[in-house]
Specification:
The protein has helices spanning 3-27, 32-43, 54-74, 78-83, 85-109, 114-123, 129-138, 145-175, 181-219, 224-246, 250-262, 267-291, 295-300, 302-326, 331-340, 346-357, 363-385, 387-396, 398-423, 443-454, 466-474, 487-492, 508-521, 537-543, 551-566, 571-584; strands at residues 436-439, 459-463, 479-481, 500-503, 526-531, 547-550. With 597 residues, it is mainly α. Among the domains are: 64-177 and 188-280 and 300-388, Na+/H+ antiporter like fold (Up-down Bundle); 433-545, NAD(P)-binding Rossmann-like Domain (Rossmann fold), CATH 3.40.50. The longest helix has 39 residues, at 181-219.
Amino acid sequence: MQDGLGFLVNLSVSLVLALLLGLVAQRLRLSPIIGYLLAGIALGPRTPGFVADPKMAHDFAEVGVILLMFGVGLHFNFNDLLAVRRIAIPGCVGQIVVASALGTIVAISFGMGAGAGIVLGIAISVASTVVLIRVLADNDLLQTNQGHIAIGWLILEDIFTVFVLVALPGLASIWGQSEGGGEGLLMTLAWAMAKFAGLTLLVVIIGRKAIPWLLNLVVRTRSGELFTLTILSLALAIATGSAALFGVSMALGAFLAGIVVGQTEVSHQAAADALPMRDAFAVLFFVSVGMLFDPQAIIKEPRFLLGLLGIVILAKPLTAFLIIWVLRYSVRTAITVALALAQIGEFSFLLANEAMGLGLLSVDGQSLLVACALISIAVNPLLFRAITPLEEWLRSKERIWRILSQRSNYEGVMLNKEEQLRLSEPGQKSEIKSRAVIVGYGPVGQTASRILKDFDIPLVIIDLNLDTVRNLIESGQAAIYGDASRRDILKAAGVQKADYLLVTIPDILTRTAVIVTARELNPKIHVFTRARYLQERAWLEEMGATDISIEEAETAIGLAILLLREVGADGNRIQKEIQEIRGELGMHKRDGQITQP
C-alpha cells in the first residue's frame, strides 16, 4: 500500500471506529472515552481484523497530547484555584500521597521494579478532567460548591502531573543507574528543575509580549483561517521547541503556551478554535493508548488489576472523604467530591506513555492501567447515582451520622448561634427576623440579594460554603450556614415568619426538599425557584413552588426579544410576541412577565 494511502486508511479507520464505539458508549450513558479505548484495542495487533500502523498512531497521539495540554493551560484559572485553596491543596496532596504509596506497594508486591511501581502509583492517583467535568455537568453540579471544589482539586492534580512529566527523564536516568546515590538524584532533579524554570521564564516573560502582539496582528487581518492556523502553530511550535531546546516533555511546553494564550484578550476565540482540533486528536490519543492494550496482562495478573482498581474506586475516594471531613465540610460535599475523583483517564495515560518511552514502564503495566481506566470510567456515573441513597442511608443510622456530621456542623452551628444572637431583638428568643430567605449564594442568589436590598427588604442567606457565610456575616449581611432542606436550618433563618423564599440552587432534588420543608413550616410563604427545563414545572408546582423561572423558556424569550429588536419591531409588537411565546410554552402570566422590552 502506498504511504499516502496508508496514512489516510489508518486515519479514516481509527476515526470511524472511534465514532461508532463512542456512540455506543454514549447511548449506554457511559463516557465516550471508553468507546475510543475499545476502538484502539480492536485496531491493535492483539485482536483479529485490521491492524493500524502503531508508529502512525503514536505520532497522532503526540499531537493529541500537545493539544490536550494546550487546552488545559488555556482554561487554567488561578482564581478558581484560590477560591477553594483551603480544601483543594491539602486534599490533592493527601490523596496523591496515599494513592501513589498504595499503588507503589501493590506494584512492587507483584514483581515490578521500584521505578515502575512509583510511576504506576502516581498514574492511578490523578483523575480525568474529561470524565470529571462530564459527570458533574450530567448531575447539575458543575456550578455548585462541590463542583468548584472538585475542579480546583483537579487543577492541582494537573499541575502535579506537569511537574512529574518534567522530572521523569531525570528520574529514569537515576533508576537506570547502579551508581550515583543520593547526590546523583539531587543533581539530576536540580538540573531538571533548572530547565523547567528556564523554559517557564522564556515562555511566560517573552511570550507575554510576543504572543499577544502576534495574535493581535493576525486578528486585524479578519481571517478566521489565519487565526486558527496561528493557534495551532503556537501550540505545536512551543511544544516541540521545548523538547528540542530544553529536553523537557512536549506536554509541558504546550501547557505553558496555553497559559500564556489564555491570558490574552482573544483567549475565548482561541479556545473555540482549539477545541475541535483538541477533541479530534484527543480521540486519536485514546485510540493509540488502546492499541497498546494486551489482554494477556489481565489474564496473567487478575489480582494485580483488582488491587489497582481497589485503590482507584475505594482508597482514593475514602482518602478524599476523610480529608474533606477533617476540614469540616458537609458530608454531602465529601461524598460528592470523593466519588467525582474515583476514576483515572488521560493524565494517567500521559504519564504512562512518557514512562514507556523512557523504559520505566512495561507494556503489561500500561495494559493494566488501560483496563483500570476502562472499568473506573464505566463505574463512575453509577457511583454518582448512589450519592443521595448513600446519604439517606447514613442519615438513617443516627450514631454514624452524628459522628460524620459533628465536625462540619460544629463550626457552622457556632457561627449560626453567634449570628442569631447578634440579629435577634433584645430580650426575645434568638431567631433572625427576616422578610425574605435566599437559599444559595451563587450568581442567581447574589442578583436576588441585591434587588431585595435595593427595596430595603430584610433578608437572610443560607449557603453550604462556610467561607461564603463567614464573609457575608463580616460584611454585615445576615447569613446561616447549613443544608436548607433541614427544618432546623430553615427555622434558624426565620422562614416560618418570612414572606418570601428564593431557592436558587441548581440541583432539583435539593430544591424540592427545601420547598417541601419550607411549606411545612410556613404554608403561606411565597416560594420563588428556578428550573432548568419546562418539564420540571408541574413537579415543582405540586411540591409547593409559587413562581418558577424556567431557564429553557427564558432563553427562548430572550432570543426572541433580541431577534425582534434586530428586525425593527416596536415595543407593542415585542410585548405581543412575548405573550404568545408564553402561551405556547404554557407559562402563567405572572411568571417573569416582561412589561417593558
